[in-house]
């Protein structure tokens, strides 16, 4: 008697084309595991925000941002980059840095504006997904000038998530949250959302860590340890200072980007072959 549901068997199976039969290098899995850990941290932040544990929720967002900065570098160092990993990273970034901060801000103070506050959270999440979609498209452009790799177009996702939470940092520092402040907080959220989808160049930092001069190794170690200790013992002061310093660097990024663009254009004009004048016919 024939089985009711016979297994599918292709007519000409080719084991070389079966993706399920090919072993995946372990180095490819490590960056994806880090990305999934970041996603777990972001999702945990939503639960903590619902339970009104906003300090722990922000801590989870910061952890997700740190893991997001690590996974790409680990993938490049291990030569484990893949299209799957890039898509997974982009989807996790939308949740961690678009959905989660919007929900945290709404539970914290934007709910005082009722529907208007929720619209602000939605606009932030929408701008985040638009920013990520644009990044996925433009990063694959082979015709980009080399100097543009040092800059992001608009504020990057992790920076946007950590920067938009500045009003919460200030509230933990003693600046009391009042319902009358909600409109100013909403305006700040919309400003950060605009910076993410804008074409304003911001420093990338993606090439940091590839080659470091020897004389800078020890100072970098000291600075990294100091920052971690400050985050552990004075988190709100440290996060506020980092946010304000980052916002202050945006004008310098614009100036430096324009300077790099002018230098690149001048180089291209010098390298362009000169057109020979027309020779008179005999």
UniProtKB/TrEMBL annotation:
InterPro entries: CDP-alcohol_PTase-I, CDP-diaglyc--ser_O-PTrfase, CDP-OH_P_trans, CDP-OH_P_trans_C, CDP-OH_PTrfase_TM_dom, CDP_ALCOHOL_P_TRANSF_CS. It holds the Pfam family CDP-OH_P_transf. The keyword Ubl conjugation does not apply. Keywords: Lipid biosynthesis, Lipid metabolism, Membrane, Phospholipid biosynthesis, Phospholipid metabolism, Transferase, Transmembrane, Transmembrane helix. It catalyses: a CDP-1,2-diacyl-sn-glycerol + L-serine = a 1,2-diacyl-sn-glycero-3-phospho-L-serine + CMP + H(+). It is an enzyme of class 2 (transferase). The chain crosses the membrane at residues 26-50, 90-109, 115-133, 154-174, 186-204, 216-233, 239-257. Its EC number is 2.7.8.8. It is found in: Endomembrane system. It is a multi-pass membrane protein. Residues 215-251 form the CDP-alcohol phosphatidyltransferase C-terminal domain. Belongs to the CDP-alcohol phosphatidyltransferase class-I family. This is CDP-diacylglycerol--serine O-phosphatidyltransferase. It comes from Labrys miyagiensis. The gene is pssA.
């Amino acid at each position: 008697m024939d089985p009711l549901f016979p297994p599918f068997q292709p007519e000409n199976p080719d084991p070389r084309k079966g993706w399920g039969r090919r072993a995946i290098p372990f180095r490819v899995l490590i960056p994806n595991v880090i990305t999934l850990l970041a996603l777990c941290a972001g999702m945990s932040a939503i639960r903590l925000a619902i339970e009104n544990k906003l300090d722990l929720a922000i801590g989870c967002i910061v952890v997700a941002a740190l893991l997001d900065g690590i996974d790409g570098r680990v993938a490049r160092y291990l030569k484990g980059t893949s299209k799957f990993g890039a898509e997974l990273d982009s989807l996790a970034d939308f949740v961690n840095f678009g959905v989660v901060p919007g929900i945290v801000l709404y539970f914290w103070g934007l709910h005082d504006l009722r529907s208007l506050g929720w619209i602000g959270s939605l606009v932030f999440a929408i701008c985040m997904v638009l920013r990520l979609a644009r990044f996925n498209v433009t990063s694959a452009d082979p015709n980009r000038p080399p100097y543009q790799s040092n800059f992001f177009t608009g504020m990057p996702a992790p920076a946007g998530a950590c920067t938009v939470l500045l009003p919460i940092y200030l509230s933990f520092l003693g600046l009391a949250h009042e319902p009358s402040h909600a409109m100013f907080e909403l305006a700040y959220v919309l400003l950060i959302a605009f910076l993410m989808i804008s074409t304003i160049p911001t420093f990338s930092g993606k090439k940091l860590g590839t080659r470091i001069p020897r004389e800078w190794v020890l100072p970098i170690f000291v600075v990294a340890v100091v920052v971690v200790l400050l985050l552990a013992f004075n988190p709100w002061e440290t996060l506020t200072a980092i946010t304000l310093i980052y916002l202050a660097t945006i004008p310098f990024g614009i100036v430096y980007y324009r300077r790099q663009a002018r230098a690149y254009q001048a180089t291209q004009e010098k390298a362009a072959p000169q057109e020979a004048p027309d020779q008179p016919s005999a």
